[in-house]
Amino acid sequence: MRNFTFHNPTKIIFGKGTIGALKREIPEGKKIMVVYGGGSIKHNGTYEEIMSALEGREVHEFSGVEPNPTYETLMQCVEQVKAKGCDFLIAAGGGSVIDGTKFIAAAALFDDDPWKIIQTFGSCVKQALPFASVLTLPATGSEMNSGSVITRAATKAKLPFNSSKVFPVFSVLDPLKTYTLPPRQVANGIVDAFVHISEQYLTQPAQASVQDRFAEGLLQTLIEEGPLALKDPEHYEVRANIMWCATMALNGLIGAGVPQDWSTHMIGHELTALYGLDHAVTLAIVLPSNLTLRKPSKLEKLAQFGRRVWNIKSGNDEHQATESIRLTREFFESLGVKTRLSDYNIGQEGIEKVVAQLKSHQMIKLGENGEVDLEMSRQILELCL
Questions:
Q1: 3-state percent helix, strand, coil for the chain, nearest multiple of 5
Q2: What is the DSSP string of 88-132?
Q3: Helices (H) and strands (E) in the chain, counts
Q4: If you placed Cys at 306, which of 143, 320, 326, 372 could pair as Cys (CB 3.0 to 4.6 Å)?
Q5: Which DSSP symbol is given to 345?
Q6: Cβ neighbours of residue 331 under 8 Å, at least 6 residues apart?
Q7: In this predicted structure, what is the pLDDT of residue 39?
Q8: Tens digit of each residue's pLDDT (9 = 90 or more) over 260-301
Q9: pTM, full prediction
């Protein structure tokens, strides 16, 4: 196991009817900006509960954060935060709203061109406004980490940043708020969490038994509970398990002390930026082909994945690794998430555009060993056709 420092300062408030905790958790006298997306929080009761908890406080609102939050929209909110003197933010929604709020929190106190936050992948962030999240869509784990992904619409650039300054102060997770999610979003959330775990688990052995067993348990939970969430949308325990699983998938715990990949995400980001595909869809497309092409360097962990997660007992490591990839693709498809570029009318020309974008964003040595160069990215994408 590698040396590591693990610190996660985000307080989690989990369970039914917990949005009222905003009242006690946010200090008196704060000027609050509630940030949300297209308005679904007004249909599922979240908005009403937030406003009830904040009764008597100075509260402002900003809506319209996109599923892939754009720099252009977020900068509008930054200006409003500054103009109104807000000093506490609430992100109400899924990972995109929370990611966007992280950028707003940092940009509102940044005294240079805010795009530099993205260009430096967050290394230039020295301070940020405090914020909380009220999660309505379990998927990204953004409610308990310090990462964010932002899109600049003008240049079709979708890039990540990370800073310890943008951990949420606290996050409220009420599984009841997931009952009304459309099946597509439920499926996407399951895929998103699954691939987050895979990016940290399906690398090279690090003799990190604790992290491996945690990761395997989370993957098994998604495999078991995911289909049930689609079949019975108002099964509380199923929804609760999926919500907590998605949070645990990317709060730093299973990634501590182990090599991490993230090449599937970087390639997927370009597909979203160019073609508007859902983030989870791009992950479902790229991961199986990525694992197939890089099977030789990931063989030991892929075989372990097959034995421990998919219960494959027969055959040698090669067989178990191959079967684990096949079953992973089948799992995504069983959730209604298609896993081929051709399913979305993207062909060879699209592949060349993605590779060009990867080059322009310096995504030229991806993966846990830096082996995913532009040519390998092209080969992975060709396997996705």
A1: 55, 10, 35
A2: EEEEEESHHHHHHHHHHHHHTT--S-THHHHHTTTTT------EE
A3: 15, 8
A4: 320
A5: T
A6: 194, 223, 226
A7: 82
A8: 999 999 999 999 999 999 999 999 999 999 999 999 999 999
A9: 0.96
Residue 127: CB atoms within 10 Å: 12
Q: Please tell me the distance from the alpha carbon of residue 164 to that of residue 9, in angstroms, as a whole number.
A: 9
Among all chains, which residue has been given the structure tokens 């006298």? 29
Domains in the chain, start-ordered, CATH in brackets? 11-177 (3.40.50.1970), 183-383 (1.20.1090.10)
Tens of pLDDT, residues 110-167: 999 999 999 999 999 999 999 999 999 999 999 999 999 999 999 999 999 999 999 9
pLDDT at 28: 95
Give me the phi and psi of 249, to 5 degrees please: -65, -25
Residue with tokens 């606290």: 170
Strands (E), the chain: 11-14, 31-36, 58-62, 88-93, 131-135, 147-152, 157-162, 170-173
Report how far residue 273's alpha carbon sits from residue 354's, in angstroms, rounded to the nearest whole number: 9
Give the three-state DSSP class for 178.
helix
